[in-house]
Design a protein that fits this description.
With 159 residues, the chain is of the alpha+beta class. It is 23% helix and 37% strand. The strands form two sheets. Strands 1, 3, 5, 6, 8 and 9 form a six-stranded mixed sheet that branches. A three-stranded antiparallel sheet has the order 2-4-7, with no helix packed on it.
Length: 159
């Protein structure tokens, strides 16, 4: 049996409307909004570093202190390292206090990277502290942090 174009369109639109209604019903369910806190951020940091001491220094977090829009915040993480086989950055982790997820990004490096520097953009949901932690080839952890004031928040997942 050959169906007419009008009938095919009608069937498609009926199915699409049903799927959208179902998606709307799921969205209407009460879902807790994910939100990091200073405590959840510290818990995520502990997942990475375990019981190791996190030293202050060697990590410079270059991020604006005041951002108008939290949707795209430029960030550069620089680690003081010669990036040799004997002394190099293995990992860089970035955390925040108030985004829906406290662990922003993890990056693996090695001596062939040449420089211990990473540049990216992140979203920030609110005014908060951002922390960068570097794991070095000798197993030590070093950190740097910055406080960022956000005037227009990003990461509003429940809107």
């Amino acid at each position: 049996m050959i169906r007419s174009d009008a009938s095919s369109r009608r069937d498609f639109l009926t199915r699409a409307a049903g799927a959208l209604a179902g998606a709307g019903a799921l969205q209407a369910l009460a879902i807790d909004r994910a939100s990091a806190t200073p405590e959840t951020m510290q818990a995520e940091i502990r997942k990475i570093v375990g019981d190791a001491k996190v030293n202050q220094g060697r990590v410079e977090l270059d991020i604006p202190q005041l951002v108008e829009n939290g949707n795209t915040v430029p960030m550069v993480v620089k680690i003081d390292s010669p990036m040799t086989e004997a002394d190099h950055v293995r990992e860089i982790h970035v955390f925040n206090e108030k985004n829906p997820q406290p662990h922003v990004i993890s990056i693996k490096l090695g001596p062939r990277a040449g420089r211990g520097i990473v540049s990216t953009r992140i979203k920030l949901a609110d005014t908060q502290k951002v922390i960068a932690i570097a794991r070095m080839s000798d197993g030590t952890f070093w950190s740097g942090s910055a406080d960022v004031i956000v005037t227009i928040a990003a990461c509003l997942e429940d809107l």
